[in-house]
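Hi V.,

You were right to ask for the full record rather than a summary. Here it is.
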Amino acid sequence: MEMLKSAAKKAVGTKAVLRALNAHEAAHVFVASDIDTFLYQKVTRACAEAGVPVSKVDSMKELGRVCGLSIGCAAAAVCR
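Predicted structure:
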């Protein structure tokens, strides 16, 4: 999580993370464990296909807080 907090460039939100993975910009992805199963599988599958490591975070609220948001966040990525 420190890596995400201090990252100069990051993608925040499921759509942004999927775009970063497709563009080969994501270096590490963080996914909240309390998101919808379909979204969780979609993001983790895209990470596996791109060869990008994934870390689980306890909650959307915690992930949003680390990204500097006042709302929850389903996924975030540290970008290259």
